[in-house]
Amino acid sequence: MIAGGALLYLTIRKVIYKQIDDSLITEKTIIADQLKHTDTIPDFEATFGHQIEVRLLDNHVRSTQSLKDTDIYDSSSDSFIPFRYLHSTGNTIEKKGFVITIFQTLSEKNELLKDISLYLFFLFFSLLLISILINYLIARKLWSPFYSSVKIAGKFDIQSDKPLVLPSTDIVEFNQLNDVFTTMTRKMRDDYLNLKEFSENASHEIQTPLAVIRAKADLLMQQKNLNKDSINLVKSINEATTKLFKLNQGLLLISKIENQVFHEKKQVSLKKIAESGLENYKEIMHLKKIKVEFEASDEAIVEMNETLSEVLISNLLSNAVRFNFDGGFIKCHIDNKYLIITNSGSPMKVNPEDLFRRFHKVGDNPQSVGLGLSIVKKITESYGMSITYKCKDTIHELKLRYHSRSV
Amino acid sequence: MKLLIVEDDRSLSRSIYDYLKLEGHICETSYTFNDAVSKASVNKYDCIILDIGLPDGNGLDLIREMKAQKLTGGILILSAKSSLDDKLVGLKIGADDYLTKPFHFAELSARINSIHRRNNYLGMNEISFNEIRVNTEDNQVYVNDRLLVLTKKEYDLLLFFMANKNRIITKESIVEHLWGDNVILTDSFDFVYTHVKNLRKKIVAAEGRNYIKCIYGFGYKFVDN
Fold this sequence. Notes:
By secondary structure, chain A is of the alpha+beta class.
Protein backbone atom coordinates (compact mmCIF):
# COMPACT_ATOMS: atom_id res chain seq x y z
CA MET A 1 0.00 0.00 0.00
CA ILE A 2 2.78 2.35 0.97
CA ALA A 3 4.72 1.36 -2.11
CA GLY A 4 1.57 1.85 -4.14
CA GLY A 5 1.09 5.29 -2.60
CA ALA A 6 4.67 6.26 -3.30
CA LEU A 7 4.38 5.02 -6.87
CA LEU A 8 1.17 6.92 -7.35
CA TYR A 9 2.77 10.07 -5.95
CA LEU A 10 5.74 9.73 -8.26
CA THR A 11 3.48 9.06 -11.25
CA ILE A 12 1.35 12.11 -10.58
CA ARG A 13 4.49 14.17 -10.07
CA LYS A 14 5.86 12.88 -13.31
CA VAL A 15 2.61 13.68 -15.13
CA ILE A 16 2.61 17.20 -13.69
CA TYR A 17 6.25 17.72 -14.69
CA LYS A 18 5.57 16.38 -18.14
CA GLN A 19 2.62 18.74 -18.48
CA ILE A 20 4.76 21.70 -17.32
CA ASP A 21 7.60 20.66 -19.56
CA ASP A 22 5.25 20.28 -22.53
CA SER A 23 3.76 23.72 -21.98
CA LEU A 24 7.25 25.20 -21.59
CA ILE A 25 8.35 23.57 -24.81
CA THR A 26 5.21 24.75 -26.60
CA GLU A 27 5.80 28.32 -25.41
CA LYS A 28 9.39 28.16 -26.45
CA THR A 29 8.41 26.90 -29.89
CA ILE A 30 5.94 29.79 -30.27
CA ILE A 31 8.57 32.30 -29.09
CA ALA A 32 11.22 30.80 -31.33
CA ASP A 33 8.81 30.94 -34.28
CA GLN A 34 8.07 34.62 -33.64
CA LEU A 35 11.78 35.36 -33.24
CA LYS A 36 12.40 33.78 -36.59
CA HIS A 37 10.04 36.18 -38.25
CA THR A 38 10.74 39.36 -36.36
CA ASP A 39 13.90 41.06 -35.32
CA THR A 40 12.45 42.76 -32.33
CA ILE A 41 11.60 41.00 -29.11
CA PRO A 42 7.88 41.07 -28.50
CA ASP A 43 6.55 41.27 -24.97
CA PHE A 44 6.15 37.60 -24.29
CA GLU A 45 5.58 37.99 -20.64
CA ALA A 46 2.36 39.84 -21.32
CA THR A 47 1.30 37.09 -23.73
CA PHE A 48 2.04 34.08 -21.54
CA GLY A 49 2.11 35.53 -18.01
CA HIS A 50 5.39 33.86 -17.27
CA GLN A 51 8.72 35.22 -16.56
CA ILE A 52 10.46 34.97 -19.85
CA GLU A 53 13.90 36.10 -20.74
CA VAL A 54 14.81 36.46 -24.37
CA ARG A 55 18.18 37.63 -25.48
CA LEU A 56 19.35 38.01 -29.01
CA LEU A 57 22.92 37.16 -29.84
CA ASP A 58 25.02 38.40 -32.71
CA ASN A 59 26.63 35.19 -33.68
CA HIS A 60 25.36 31.83 -34.69
CA VAL A 61 24.91 29.28 -31.89
CA ARG A 62 24.33 25.59 -31.58
CA SER A 63 20.75 24.95 -30.84
CA THR A 64 20.25 23.36 -27.41
CA GLN A 65 17.38 22.78 -25.07
CA SER A 66 17.43 21.84 -21.35
CA LEU A 67 14.79 21.62 -18.61
CA LYS A 68 15.82 22.17 -15.01
CA ASP A 69 14.53 22.86 -11.49
CA THR A 70 15.64 25.88 -9.55
CA ASP A 71 14.71 27.94 -6.52
CA ILE A 72 14.32 31.66 -6.96
CA TYR A 73 14.29 34.08 -4.14
CA ASP A 74 11.04 35.94 -3.82
CA SER A 75 11.48 39.15 -1.93
CA SER A 76 7.74 39.65 -1.28
CA SER A 77 7.36 36.42 0.67
CA ASP A 78 11.01 36.27 1.80
CA SER A 79 11.37 32.67 0.67
CA PHE A 80 12.62 30.56 -2.12
CA ILE A 81 9.98 29.46 -4.56
CA PRO A 82 10.59 26.39 -6.71
CA PHE A 83 10.59 27.03 -10.41
CA ARG A 84 10.86 24.89 -13.47
CA TYR A 85 12.68 26.54 -16.31
CA LEU A 86 13.54 25.88 -19.88
CA HIS A 87 16.77 27.10 -21.21
CA SER A 88 16.95 27.06 -24.97
CA THR A 89 19.21 28.43 -27.61
CA GLY A 90 18.49 28.63 -31.30
CA ASN A 91 19.05 30.64 -34.42
CA THR A 92 16.83 32.93 -36.41
CA ILE A 93 16.58 32.84 -40.17
CA GLU A 94 19.25 35.54 -40.36
CA LYS A 95 21.53 33.15 -38.56
CA LYS A 96 21.53 35.13 -35.44
CA GLY A 97 21.45 33.27 -32.20
CA PHE A 98 19.01 33.77 -29.40
CA VAL A 99 18.63 32.49 -25.87
CA ILE A 100 15.20 31.81 -24.40
CA THR A 101 14.71 31.08 -20.71
CA ILE A 102 11.16 30.47 -19.59
CA PHE A 103 10.38 30.13 -15.90
CA GLN A 104 7.28 28.58 -14.62
CA THR A 105 6.53 28.48 -10.92
CA LEU A 106 6.07 25.05 -9.40
CA SER A 107 4.45 26.25 -6.21
CA GLU A 108 0.92 25.97 -7.57
CA LYS A 109 1.60 22.60 -9.02
CA ASN A 110 3.30 21.49 -5.84
CA GLU A 111 0.26 22.66 -3.96
CA LEU A 112 -1.88 20.56 -6.23
CA LEU A 113 0.42 17.62 -5.78
CA LYS A 114 0.31 18.05 -2.03
CA ASP A 115 -3.47 18.22 -2.04
CA ILE A 116 -3.79 15.17 -4.21
CA SER A 117 -1.31 13.29 -2.03
CA LEU A 118 -3.16 14.28 1.07
CA TYR A 119 -6.48 13.17 -0.33
CA LEU A 120 -4.92 9.99 -1.53
CA PHE A 121 -3.36 9.42 1.84
CA PHE A 122 -6.70 9.84 3.57
CA LEU A 123 -8.35 7.65 1.05
CA PHE A 124 -5.76 4.96 1.50
CA PHE A 125 -5.79 5.28 5.24
CA SER A 126 -9.55 5.03 5.54
CA LEU A 127 -9.51 2.17 3.08
CA LEU A 128 -6.95 0.48 5.25
CA LEU A 129 -9.01 1.06 8.37
CA ILE A 130 -12.18 -0.14 6.74
CA SER A 131 -10.51 -3.21 5.36
CA ILE A 132 -9.01 -4.01 8.76
CA LEU A 133 -12.40 -3.55 10.37
CA ILE A 134 -14.16 -5.66 7.79
CA ASN A 135 -11.47 -8.26 8.08
CA TYR A 136 -11.87 -8.29 11.85
CA LEU A 137 -15.64 -8.53 11.68
CA ILE A 138 -15.54 -11.30 9.14
CA ALA A 139 -12.93 -13.16 11.13
CA ARG A 140 -14.97 -12.81 14.25
CA LYS A 141 -18.07 -14.07 12.60
CA LEU A 142 -16.19 -16.76 10.78
CA TRP A 143 -14.29 -17.98 13.85
CA SER A 144 -17.05 -17.51 16.37
CA PRO A 145 -18.21 -21.15 16.17
CA PHE A 146 -14.59 -22.15 16.63
CA TYR A 147 -14.13 -20.00 19.70
CA SER A 148 -17.41 -21.09 21.23
CA SER A 149 -16.41 -24.70 20.66
CA VAL A 150 -13.02 -24.06 22.24
CA LYS A 151 -14.74 -22.43 25.20
CA ILE A 152 -17.13 -25.33 25.70
CA ALA A 153 -14.42 -27.91 25.19
CA GLY A 154 -12.20 -26.09 27.65
CA LYS A 155 -14.84 -26.40 30.32
CA PHE A 156 -15.32 -30.10 29.67
CA ASP A 157 -15.05 -32.15 32.82
CA ILE A 158 -14.80 -35.88 32.46
CA GLN A 159 -16.38 -36.34 35.86
CA SER A 160 -19.45 -34.30 35.06
CA ASP A 161 -22.65 -36.14 34.29
CA LYS A 162 -23.17 -34.42 30.95
CA PRO A 163 -21.40 -35.33 27.71
CA LEU A 164 -19.68 -32.68 25.62
CA VAL A 165 -22.14 -31.00 23.24
CA LEU A 166 -20.68 -28.63 20.64
CA PRO A 167 -22.91 -26.34 18.58
CA SER A 168 -23.10 -27.23 14.90
CA THR A 169 -22.07 -24.59 12.38
CA ASP A 170 -22.37 -23.88 8.64
CA ILE A 171 -18.65 -24.27 8.24
CA VAL A 172 -17.71 -27.73 7.15
CA GLU A 173 -14.21 -27.66 8.62
CA PHE A 174 -15.43 -26.62 12.03
CA ASN A 175 -18.13 -29.24 11.96
CA GLN A 176 -15.46 -31.81 11.24
CA LEU A 177 -13.39 -30.53 14.12
CA ASN A 178 -16.42 -30.59 16.42
CA ASP A 179 -17.24 -34.11 15.35
CA VAL A 180 -13.72 -35.23 16.14
CA PHE A 181 -13.89 -33.48 19.50
CA THR A 182 -17.27 -34.95 20.35
CA THR A 183 -16.29 -38.47 19.35
CA MET A 184 -13.04 -38.22 21.25
CA THR A 185 -14.60 -36.96 24.45
CA ARG A 186 -17.47 -39.40 24.20
CA LYS A 187 -14.96 -42.19 23.98
CA MET A 188 -13.05 -40.78 26.94
CA ARG A 189 -16.20 -40.40 28.96
CA ASP A 190 -17.40 -43.88 28.13
CA ASP A 191 -14.08 -45.30 29.18
CA TYR A 192 -14.14 -43.28 32.35
CA LEU A 193 -17.70 -44.27 33.20
CA ASN A 194 -16.95 -47.91 32.44
CA LEU A 195 -13.95 -47.79 34.68
CA LYS A 196 -15.86 -46.03 37.40
CA GLU A 197 -18.73 -48.44 37.13
CA PHE A 198 -16.33 -51.33 37.12
CA SER A 199 -14.54 -50.23 40.26
CA GLU A 200 -17.82 -49.51 42.01
CA ASN A 201 -19.34 -52.80 40.97
CA ALA A 202 -16.16 -54.68 41.75
CA SER A 203 -15.99 -53.17 45.21
CA HIS A 204 -19.64 -53.87 45.89
CA GLU A 205 -19.70 -57.34 44.44
CA ILE A 206 -16.61 -58.31 46.41
CA GLN A 207 -18.46 -57.56 49.65
CA THR A 208 -20.81 -60.55 49.46
CA PRO A 209 -18.17 -63.21 48.73
CA LEU A 210 -16.08 -61.62 51.46
CA ALA A 211 -19.02 -61.96 53.80
CA VAL A 212 -19.31 -65.62 52.79
CA ILE A 213 -15.62 -66.26 53.49
CA ARG A 214 -15.83 -64.54 56.83
CA ALA A 215 -19.03 -66.39 57.72
CA LYS A 216 -17.58 -69.77 56.82
CA ALA A 217 -14.40 -69.03 58.74
CA ASP A 218 -16.51 -67.96 61.69
CA LEU A 219 -18.47 -71.20 61.56
CA LEU A 220 -15.30 -73.23 61.14
CA MET A 221 -13.86 -71.49 64.17
CA GLN A 222 -16.81 -72.46 66.30
CA GLN A 223 -16.19 -76.15 65.72
CA LYS A 224 -14.85 -78.11 68.60
CA ASN A 225 -11.66 -80.15 68.55
CA LEU A 226 -9.75 -77.99 66.15
CA ASN A 227 -6.05 -78.72 66.29
CA LYS A 228 -3.38 -76.08 66.38
CA ASP A 229 -2.68 -76.21 62.64
CA SER A 230 -6.33 -75.77 61.75
CA ILE A 231 -6.59 -72.88 64.19
CA ASN A 232 -3.66 -71.14 62.51
CA LEU A 233 -5.21 -71.71 59.10
CA VAL A 234 -8.52 -70.22 60.14
CA LYS A 235 -6.68 -67.36 61.80
CA SER A 236 -4.80 -66.60 58.58
CA ILE A 237 -8.04 -66.70 56.60
CA ASN A 238 -9.58 -64.30 59.08
CA GLU A 239 -6.67 -61.90 58.89
CA ALA A 240 -6.58 -61.91 55.11
CA THR A 241 -10.33 -61.38 54.95
CA THR A 242 -10.12 -58.45 57.31
CA LYS A 243 -7.33 -56.89 55.31
CA LEU A 244 -9.19 -57.36 52.04
CA PHE A 245 -12.25 -55.86 53.66
CA LYS A 246 -10.36 -52.80 54.86
CA LEU A 247 -8.74 -52.39 51.47
CA ASN A 248 -12.04 -52.64 49.70
CA GLN A 249 -13.64 -50.26 52.13
CA GLY A 250 -10.87 -47.71 51.63
CA LEU A 251 -11.08 -47.88 47.84
CA LEU A 252 -14.85 -47.67 47.99
CA LEU A 253 -14.59 -44.59 50.17
CA ILE A 254 -12.17 -42.93 47.75
CA SER A 255 -14.41 -43.67 44.78
CA LYS A 256 -17.39 -42.35 46.72
CA ILE A 257 -15.58 -39.12 47.48
CA GLU A 258 -14.72 -38.86 43.80
CA ASN A 259 -18.32 -39.50 42.83
CA GLN A 260 -19.46 -36.92 45.34
CA VAL A 261 -21.73 -39.29 47.17
CA PHE A 262 -21.10 -37.20 50.25
CA HIS A 263 -22.62 -34.06 48.82
CA GLU A 264 -24.52 -32.99 51.93
CA LYS A 265 -22.65 -30.17 53.58
CA LYS A 266 -23.03 -28.47 56.89
CA GLN A 267 -21.07 -26.25 59.22
CA VAL A 268 -18.69 -28.51 61.02
CA SER A 269 -16.48 -27.55 63.92
CA LEU A 270 -13.14 -29.22 63.40
CA LYS A 271 -12.31 -28.45 67.00
CA LYS A 272 -15.23 -30.52 68.27
CA ILE A 273 -14.43 -33.34 65.89
CA ALA A 274 -10.79 -33.35 66.90
CA GLU A 275 -11.83 -33.43 70.55
CA SER A 276 -14.12 -36.40 70.10
CA GLY A 277 -11.50 -38.06 67.90
CA LEU A 278 -8.89 -37.71 70.62
CA GLU A 279 -11.44 -39.03 73.09
CA ASN A 280 -11.87 -42.08 70.89
CA TYR A 281 -8.13 -42.73 70.94
CA LYS A 282 -7.72 -41.82 74.59
CA GLU A 283 -7.46 -45.37 75.83
CA ILE A 284 -5.05 -46.53 73.20
CA MET A 285 -2.87 -43.48 73.78
CA HIS A 286 -2.97 -44.18 77.45
CA LEU A 287 -1.88 -47.72 76.73
CA LYS A 288 1.04 -46.51 74.63
CA LYS A 289 1.82 -43.84 77.22
CA ILE A 290 1.48 -41.10 74.64
CA LYS A 291 1.23 -37.60 76.02
CA VAL A 292 -1.47 -35.49 74.40
CA GLU A 293 -1.47 -31.74 74.10
CA PHE A 294 -4.49 -30.02 72.66
CA GLU A 295 -4.78 -26.34 72.05
CA ALA A 296 -7.48 -24.60 70.05
CA SER A 297 -7.83 -20.87 69.61
CA ASP A 298 -10.75 -21.20 67.20
CA GLU A 299 -13.78 -23.38 66.65
CA ALA A 300 -12.50 -23.90 63.09
CA ILE A 301 -15.90 -23.93 61.45
CA VAL A 302 -15.65 -25.46 57.99
CA GLU A 303 -18.42 -26.20 55.57
CA MET A 304 -18.13 -29.83 54.62
CA ASN A 305 -19.74 -33.23 54.94
CA GLU A 306 -19.83 -34.34 58.55
CA THR A 307 -18.96 -37.96 57.89
CA LEU A 308 -15.99 -36.98 55.78
CA SER A 309 -14.78 -34.51 58.40
CA GLU A 310 -14.82 -37.34 60.92
CA VAL A 311 -12.98 -39.65 58.55
CA LEU A 312 -10.44 -36.90 57.89
CA ILE A 313 -9.63 -36.20 61.52
CA SER A 314 -9.82 -39.82 62.53
CA ASN A 315 -7.33 -40.81 59.81
CA LEU A 316 -4.93 -38.05 60.84
CA LEU A 317 -5.11 -39.00 64.49
CA SER A 318 -4.88 -42.72 63.84
CA ASN A 319 -1.77 -41.99 61.82
CA ALA A 320 -0.26 -39.99 64.64
CA VAL A 321 -0.99 -42.79 67.09
CA ARG A 322 0.05 -45.64 64.85
CA PHE A 323 3.47 -44.31 63.93
CA ASN A 324 4.20 -43.06 67.40
CA PHE A 325 6.41 -44.89 69.82
CA ASP A 326 5.65 -45.78 73.41
CA GLY A 327 6.05 -42.76 75.62
CA GLY A 328 5.86 -40.36 72.69
CA PHE A 329 3.67 -37.31 72.27
CA ILE A 330 0.91 -35.92 70.07
CA LYS A 331 0.25 -32.24 69.81
CA CYS A 332 -2.88 -30.95 68.17
CA HIS A 333 -3.06 -27.26 67.41
CA ILE A 334 -6.10 -25.55 65.91
CA ASP A 335 -6.51 -21.94 64.88
CA ASN A 336 -8.67 -20.21 62.32
CA LYS A 337 -6.45 -21.30 59.44
CA TYR A 338 -4.57 -24.44 60.33
CA LEU A 339 -4.99 -27.72 62.07
CA ILE A 340 -1.54 -28.98 62.90
CA ILE A 341 -0.88 -32.42 64.27
CA THR A 342 2.65 -32.94 65.49
CA ASN A 343 3.79 -36.29 66.76
CA SER A 344 6.89 -38.19 67.66
CA GLY A 345 7.82 -41.25 65.64
CA SER A 346 10.73 -42.99 63.99
CA PRO A 347 12.50 -40.83 61.43
CA MET A 348 11.17 -41.39 57.94
CA LYS A 349 13.06 -41.07 54.71
CA VAL A 350 10.19 -40.41 52.43
CA ASN A 351 9.26 -37.89 49.82
CA PRO A 352 6.43 -35.87 51.39
CA GLU A 353 4.40 -36.12 48.19
CA ASP A 354 4.70 -39.91 48.08
CA LEU A 355 3.20 -40.12 51.52
CA PHE A 356 -0.21 -39.24 50.13
CA ARG A 357 -0.07 -41.76 47.29
CA ARG A 358 -2.24 -44.83 47.30
CA PHE A 359 -0.71 -47.99 48.68
CA HIS A 360 2.34 -46.18 49.88
CA LYS A 361 3.40 -48.17 52.88
CA VAL A 362 5.77 -47.13 55.58
CA GLY A 363 7.50 -49.85 57.50
CA ASP A 364 6.42 -53.45 57.47
CA ASN A 365 3.12 -53.11 59.20
CA PRO A 366 1.05 -56.08 57.97
CA GLN A 367 -2.25 -54.49 58.96
CA SER A 368 -1.67 -51.28 57.11
CA VAL A 369 -3.19 -51.09 53.66
CA GLY A 370 -1.66 -47.71 52.84
CA LEU A 371 -4.84 -45.86 52.04
CA GLY A 372 -5.32 -43.65 55.09
CA LEU A 373 -3.44 -40.59 53.92
CA SER A 374 -4.60 -40.85 50.33
CA ILE A 375 -8.16 -40.73 51.67
CA VAL A 376 -7.13 -37.64 53.64
CA LYS A 377 -5.69 -36.14 50.47
CA LYS A 378 -8.87 -36.88 48.51
CA ILE A 379 -11.06 -35.26 51.14
CA THR A 380 -8.90 -32.15 51.39
CA GLU A 381 -8.84 -31.85 47.61
CA SER A 382 -12.60 -32.02 47.32
CA TYR A 383 -13.03 -29.16 49.79
CA GLY A 384 -10.27 -26.88 48.55
CA MET A 385 -8.12 -27.52 51.59
CA SER A 386 -4.47 -28.39 51.46
CA ILE A 387 -2.34 -30.70 53.49
CA THR A 388 1.43 -30.74 53.85
CA TYR A 389 3.82 -33.02 55.63
CA LYS A 390 7.07 -32.10 57.32
CA CYS A 391 9.50 -34.28 59.16
CA LYS A 392 12.48 -33.38 61.27
CA ASP A 393 14.29 -36.30 62.87
CA THR A 394 11.69 -37.85 65.10
CA ILE A 395 9.17 -35.02 64.90
CA HIS A 396 6.48 -35.35 62.27
CA GLU A 397 4.07 -32.63 61.37
CA LEU A 398 0.92 -32.73 59.28
CA LYS A 399 -0.52 -29.35 58.55
CA LEU A 400 -4.07 -28.94 57.29
CA ARG A 401 -4.99 -25.59 55.86
CA TYR A 402 -8.63 -24.62 55.50
CA HIS A 403 -10.88 -21.63 55.07
CA SER A 404 -12.68 -21.20 58.32
CA ARG A 405 -15.96 -19.33 58.54
CA SER A 406 -15.81 -17.28 61.63
CA VAL A 407 -18.98 -17.29 63.68
CA MET B 1 -36.50 -65.87 68.57
CA LYS B 2 -38.07 -66.38 65.17
CA LEU B 3 -36.02 -64.92 62.38
CA LEU B 4 -36.35 -64.51 58.64
CA ILE B 5 -33.17 -64.35 56.60
CA VAL B 6 -33.67 -62.57 53.29
CA GLU B 7 -30.46 -63.00 51.32
CA ASP B 8 -30.06 -64.01 47.70
CA ASP B 9 -26.58 -65.45 48.05
CA ARG B 10 -27.43 -68.98 49.08
CA SER B 11 -24.06 -69.78 50.52
CA LEU B 12 -24.13 -66.75 52.80
CA SER B 13 -27.77 -67.36 53.63
CA ARG B 14 -26.90 -70.93 54.61
CA SER B 15 -24.08 -69.76 56.88
CA ILE B 16 -26.25 -67.19 58.63
CA TYR B 17 -28.91 -69.82 59.02
CA ASP B 18 -26.45 -72.30 60.53
CA TYR B 19 -24.95 -69.77 62.89
CA LEU B 20 -28.22 -68.35 64.16
CA LYS B 21 -29.64 -71.85 64.57
CA LEU B 22 -26.68 -72.72 66.75
CA GLU B 23 -27.64 -69.70 68.83
CA GLY B 24 -31.00 -71.36 69.38
CA HIS B 25 -33.09 -69.22 67.06
CA ILE B 26 -35.77 -70.51 64.76
CA CYS B 27 -34.80 -69.41 61.27
CA GLU B 28 -36.43 -69.29 57.88
CA THR B 29 -34.83 -68.20 54.64
CA SER B 30 -35.96 -66.32 51.56
CA TYR B 31 -33.90 -65.86 48.43
CA THR B 32 -36.23 -63.51 46.61
CA PHE B 33 -38.16 -60.36 47.29
CA ASN B 34 -41.56 -61.87 46.49
CA ASP B 35 -40.97 -64.90 48.67
CA ALA B 36 -39.90 -62.62 51.52
CA VAL B 37 -43.01 -60.45 51.16
CA SER B 38 -45.35 -63.43 51.25
CA LYS B 39 -43.50 -65.02 54.20
CA ALA B 40 -43.41 -61.79 56.16
CA SER B 41 -47.13 -61.16 55.72
CA VAL B 42 -48.12 -64.66 56.82
CA ASN B 43 -45.74 -65.28 59.72
CA LYS B 44 -44.73 -63.09 62.59
CA TYR B 45 -40.99 -62.74 62.94
CA ASP B 46 -39.09 -61.16 65.78
CA CYS B 47 -36.50 -59.91 63.39
CA ILE B 48 -35.94 -59.90 59.65
CA ILE B 49 -32.38 -59.90 58.38
CA LEU B 50 -32.71 -58.15 55.07
CA ASP B 51 -30.33 -57.84 52.15
CA ILE B 52 -31.07 -54.73 50.10
CA GLY B 53 -29.88 -55.93 46.71
CA LEU B 54 -32.30 -58.70 45.78
CA PRO B 55 -32.70 -60.10 42.25
CA ASP B 56 -36.38 -59.18 41.95
CA GLY B 57 -36.61 -56.06 44.06
CA ASN B 58 -35.10 -53.63 46.45
CA GLY B 59 -35.04 -54.67 50.08
CA LEU B 60 -36.02 -51.17 51.08
CA ASP B 61 -39.39 -51.76 49.41
CA LEU B 62 -39.96 -54.73 51.70
CA ILE B 63 -39.61 -52.39 54.68
CA ARG B 64 -42.15 -50.04 53.13
CA GLU B 65 -44.46 -52.97 52.44
CA MET B 66 -44.19 -54.20 56.01
CA LYS B 67 -44.83 -50.77 57.46
CA ALA B 68 -47.83 -50.37 55.16
CA GLN B 69 -49.24 -53.68 56.40
CA LYS B 70 -48.43 -52.63 59.97
CA LEU B 71 -46.39 -55.76 60.56
CA THR B 72 -44.36 -55.78 63.75
CA GLY B 73 -40.88 -57.15 64.16
CA GLY B 74 -37.43 -55.72 63.92
CA ILE B 75 -35.58 -55.21 60.67
CA LEU B 76 -31.83 -55.44 60.31
CA ILE B 77 -30.54 -54.30 56.94
CA LEU B 78 -27.67 -56.26 55.54
CA SER B 79 -26.00 -54.66 52.61
CA ALA B 80 -22.96 -54.69 50.45
CA LYS B 81 -23.49 -51.00 50.00
CA SER B 82 -22.12 -49.10 52.92
CA SER B 83 -23.45 -45.98 51.24
CA LEU B 84 -24.60 -43.48 53.77
CA ASP B 85 -27.71 -42.62 51.77
CA ASP B 86 -29.00 -46.19 51.77
CA LYS B 87 -28.39 -46.33 55.45
CA LEU B 88 -30.26 -43.14 56.18
CA VAL B 89 -33.17 -44.07 53.92
CA GLY B 90 -33.37 -47.51 55.48
CA LEU B 91 -33.40 -46.20 59.03
CA LYS B 92 -35.81 -43.44 58.12
CA ILE B 93 -38.46 -45.73 56.67
CA GLY B 94 -38.38 -48.00 59.67
CA ALA B 95 -35.39 -50.35 59.73
CA ASP B 96 -33.90 -50.81 63.19
CA ASP B 97 -30.27 -51.19 62.30
CA TYR B 98 -27.84 -51.50 59.45
CA LEU B 99 -24.94 -53.89 59.02
CA THR B 100 -22.44 -53.75 56.20
CA LYS B 101 -21.05 -56.85 54.55
CA PRO B 102 -18.81 -58.49 55.44
CA PHE B 103 -19.75 -58.73 59.06
CA HIS B 104 -18.74 -60.85 61.99
CA PHE B 105 -21.34 -63.26 63.23
CA ALA B 106 -20.74 -62.06 66.76
CA GLU B 107 -21.72 -58.58 65.59
CA LEU B 108 -24.82 -59.88 63.81
CA SER B 109 -25.84 -61.72 66.93
CA ALA B 110 -25.30 -58.69 69.14
CA ARG B 111 -27.32 -56.47 66.80
CA ILE B 112 -30.23 -58.94 66.60
CA ASN B 113 -30.30 -59.18 70.38
CA SER B 114 -30.23 -55.44 70.75
CA ILE B 115 -33.07 -54.96 68.24
CA HIS B 116 -35.08 -57.60 70.01
CA ARG B 117 -34.50 -55.92 73.37
CA ARG B 118 -35.49 -52.53 72.09
CA ASN B 119 -38.67 -53.78 70.42
CA ASN B 120 -39.81 -55.75 73.41
CA TYR B 121 -38.74 -53.50 76.19
CA LEU B 122 -41.47 -54.68 78.56
CA GLY B 123 -39.68 -57.04 80.88
CA MET B 124 -36.89 -57.48 78.35
CA ASN B 125 -34.55 -54.80 79.53
CA GLU B 126 -32.67 -57.22 81.71
CA ILE B 127 -30.25 -59.86 80.58
CA SER B 128 -28.89 -62.20 83.12
CA PHE B 129 -26.32 -64.91 83.12
CA ASN B 130 -25.99 -66.75 86.41
CA GLU B 131 -24.90 -64.14 88.94
CA ILE B 132 -24.44 -61.37 86.33
CA ARG B 133 -27.42 -59.16 85.62
CA VAL B 134 -27.41 -56.34 83.08
CA ASN B 135 -30.10 -53.70 82.97
CA THR B 136 -29.98 -52.34 79.44
CA GLU B 137 -32.29 -49.45 80.16
CA ASP B 138 -30.13 -47.62 82.64
CA ASN B 139 -26.93 -49.41 81.59
CA GLN B 140 -26.22 -50.88 85.00
CA VAL B 141 -24.46 -54.16 85.71
CA TYR B 142 -25.02 -56.16 88.87
CA VAL B 143 -22.95 -59.09 90.08
CA ASN B 144 -24.54 -60.95 92.96
CA ASP B 145 -26.93 -57.99 93.17
CA ARG B 146 -24.04 -55.66 93.76
CA LEU B 147 -23.59 -52.76 91.36
CA LEU B 148 -20.50 -53.07 89.23
CA VAL B 149 -18.92 -49.86 87.99
CA LEU B 150 -17.74 -50.32 84.42
CA THR B 151 -16.42 -47.96 81.81
CA LYS B 152 -18.49 -47.50 78.64
CA LYS B 153 -16.21 -49.79 76.65
CA GLU B 154 -16.20 -52.47 79.34
CA TYR B 155 -19.98 -52.36 79.46
CA ASP B 156 -20.23 -52.71 75.69
CA LEU B 157 -17.74 -55.54 75.82
CA LEU B 158 -19.70 -57.41 78.48
CA LEU B 159 -22.93 -57.03 76.50
CA PHE B 160 -21.14 -58.24 73.39
CA PHE B 161 -19.91 -61.32 75.23
CA MET B 162 -23.33 -62.04 76.67
CA ALA B 163 -24.95 -61.80 73.26
CA ASN B 164 -22.49 -64.42 72.02
CA LYS B 165 -22.42 -66.96 74.78
CA ASN B 166 -20.50 -70.15 74.08
CA ARG B 167 -19.18 -68.75 70.80
CA ILE B 168 -15.65 -67.91 69.93
CA ILE B 169 -15.32 -64.18 69.45
CA THR B 170 -12.34 -62.93 67.52
CA LYS B 171 -10.33 -59.93 68.65
CA GLU B 172 -11.08 -58.31 65.29
CA SER B 173 -14.80 -58.47 65.84
CA ILE B 174 -14.33 -56.96 69.30
CA VAL B 175 -12.28 -54.11 67.86
CA GLU B 176 -14.92 -53.46 65.20
CA HIS B 177 -17.70 -53.66 67.72
CA LEU B 178 -16.09 -51.26 70.18
CA TRP B 179 -14.51 -48.74 67.84
CA GLY B 180 -16.29 -49.15 64.55
CA ASP B 181 -14.60 -50.29 61.36
CA ASN B 182 -12.92 -46.99 60.65
CA VAL B 183 -10.26 -47.74 63.19
CA ILE B 184 -7.25 -49.52 61.79
CA LEU B 185 -4.85 -49.96 64.63
CA THR B 186 -2.22 -52.58 64.96
CA ASP B 187 -1.99 -52.21 68.68
CA SER B 188 -5.74 -52.44 69.11
CA PHE B 189 -5.39 -56.14 69.92
CA ASP B 190 -3.32 -55.32 72.98
CA PHE B 191 -6.00 -52.89 73.77
CA VAL B 192 -8.71 -55.55 73.61
CA TYR B 193 -6.55 -57.65 75.87
CA THR B 194 -6.34 -54.81 78.42
CA HIS B 195 -10.09 -54.25 78.37
CA VAL B 196 -10.89 -57.93 78.71
CA LYS B 197 -8.40 -58.19 81.56
CA ASN B 198 -9.97 -55.23 83.38
CA LEU B 199 -13.51 -56.51 82.87
CA ARG B 200 -12.57 -59.95 84.14
CA LYS B 201 -10.81 -58.41 87.14
CA LYS B 202 -13.84 -56.33 88.09
CA ILE B 203 -16.26 -59.27 87.84
CA VAL B 204 -13.98 -61.51 89.88
CA ALA B 205 -13.50 -58.75 92.44
CA ALA B 206 -17.28 -58.66 92.86
CA GLU B 207 -17.10 -62.37 93.63
CA GLY B 208 -18.40 -63.32 90.21
CA ARG B 209 -16.94 -66.22 88.34
CA ASN B 210 -14.56 -65.85 85.44
CA TYR B 211 -16.57 -66.72 82.36
CA ILE B 212 -14.25 -65.17 79.81
CA LYS B 213 -12.04 -67.84 78.42
CA CYS B 214 -9.05 -67.14 76.25
CA ILE B 215 -9.05 -69.20 73.05
CA TYR B 216 -5.69 -69.78 71.48
CA GLY B 217 -5.23 -68.06 68.13
CA PHE B 218 -8.71 -66.57 67.93
CA GLY B 219 -9.84 -64.55 70.84
CA TYR B 220 -12.28 -65.21 73.60
CA LYS B 221 -15.29 -67.23 74.57
CA PHE B 222 -17.88 -66.35 77.17
CA VAL B 223 -18.68 -69.72 78.61
CA ASP B 224 -20.27 -71.26 81.69
CA ASN B 225 -18.00 -74.07 82.77
